[in-house]
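Quick start: what a row looks like.
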Amino acid sequence: MSRTTRIVRLRRRTFGKRRQGTRASLRWLGGIALALVSGITAVTITAWFVGTAVYTTLTADLPEFDQLSQVSETAVSPTQLLAWTDASQTQTIVIDEITPPLNGQRRWLPLDAIPQDLINATIANEQPDFWTDEFRLWSSDQNTIIQQALRHSPLATRHSPLKEQLLAHRAFNSYSREQILEWYLNGRYYGNLAFGAEAAAQVYFDKPLADLTLAEAAMLAASSAETNPIDAPEDAKTAQETVLAAMVEAGWISPARMQAAANTRLQIAPSASDNTRIIAPHFARYARQELARLFTPEELLAGGLRVYTSLNLALQSQAECAARAHINRLSGQIGPALPADELAACAALDYLPPLDTAVLGLDQRVDNTAVVVLDAKTAEIRALVGSVNYWQEPFNMAVDGRRQPGTAFTPFTYLTALSQGYTASTMVLDIPTDFATGGEPAYTPQNADGRFHGPMRLRQALGSGYHIPAIQVASWVGMNNVVNTARNLGI
C-alpha cells in the first residue's frame, strides 16, 4: 500500500472516529436538554399550581365587587356636639348637629343618569387613559379609577392592601369599564360626609346631580376632603380650571366652552353648620374640623356620636359681648358700648381697659376681632370668638387667620435683652423713629394710642405695651436672637 493511500485511509479512519464522537456528544447534550426542558416544564407547572392555589386562598373570602351598590341605604341619627353651660361642667347643651347629606342615605345612580360632563371631567382628572388602559396587578400606580373605587368604598376597610389589589384585579377582569365607573362615581368620597356624586351635588350646590352645569361638574370632579368649594374655595377653583384644561386636551370640550365655564360664578351651598340654630358657630366649625381629623368619614357618616367639647357657654357669652363692645368703642361710638339688655349681662365689660381720652369718639377703623380663652392648666379652649359676627364674617380669625403676634411677642424681646445684660431699668426712647435700613421704604411705627411718651425704663415700656421701644430693643439684641428665645420656650 502506498504511503499516500495509507495517509488517505488514516485520514478517513480518523474522520470516522470524530463523527462517532460528535454523535455521542450530541446524544449526551440532547439528554441534558431534554432533562432541562422537562425540569423547567415541571417547575412551570408546579409554579402555576402553587400560584393558582395562593391566588385561590387569598381571594377565597373576597366579596363580589358589585356589593358596592348594596351599601347601607338606611338613615342615621346625627352626631351631636355638646358644650358645658356652667363652670362646674355638670350640664350640657347641644351647640351643633352633624347630619350626613341625604340624611345618611347612599343614593345610587346608574351611569346613564349621571351627566356626561361629570363623567368626562372625572376621567380627565383621575385617569385620562381609562377607556384604553389595561390593569396591571403589580403596577406601582395605585390611583387608577378601579383602585380608587375600591379604596373609597366600605369594602376597602375589610381587607389588607394585597387583597384589595386582588379584588380590583378580579373586578377589572369581570366587569365592564362602564360598571366600574358607575361604582366609582357612586362610592367616591367628595368631602363633607358626601359619599357619591349625588350627595356631593346636594352638599356643594344644593341641587340634584342631573342639574349640574359644566362648571359645577368640573369643580365636583376635583372635590375631596381637603379641596372643595366649602372648606377651600380658592383651591377648589384652581382645581376646577385644571380639570377643564384636561377636558380640552382630551377633546371633550372646546377652548371656548372651557373659558365660559371657568368664568362662571358658581353659587355654592352654605355649609351644613351655617344655620341659625348653631351656638358658638366658629367653635363648632373648628370642632368639626378636629372630628374629621380624628375619625374616618365612614365613622362620622354612621352618626350617633355625642361629642363633649371643652367649651364653656358662660365664658363664651362673655367673650362675645366683650368683643362686640370693644369694636363699638373703637368705632367712635359715644355712650354705652352695648344695648341695654346686653349691657346688663356683660360682666366682662368691667375688665376692658378704658380708652385714652384722645381717641374717644374717633373711628379707629377697626371692624373685627377674635378672642380665645384657654384653661391655664389644661390648655383646653373654654371660649372662642372667630369674628364679631359669624353670619356676616364666617372666616375664623382665631384659628385660620395668619396675623402678626403684635405685643404678645414683646416679652420674648425683653427677655432676650435681659439675657444679654440689659436690665429692667435700662433707658429706651419712645419717640418718632424710622427703623428702615438698607434703602428700604420708611418704617415709622405708631403706638396704639397714637402718642409718643419720651424716655422710659424697659419695665415701663413692657408694661405699657408700647410699640416703638419694643422695636428699638429688638434692633439692639437682633431679631434672630429673639426668635431663638421664643423657640427655646416652645413657641
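That is the whole record. Strands lie at 79-84, 92-98, 306-312, 371-374, 381-385, 427-430, 454-457. The radius of gyration is 37 Å.
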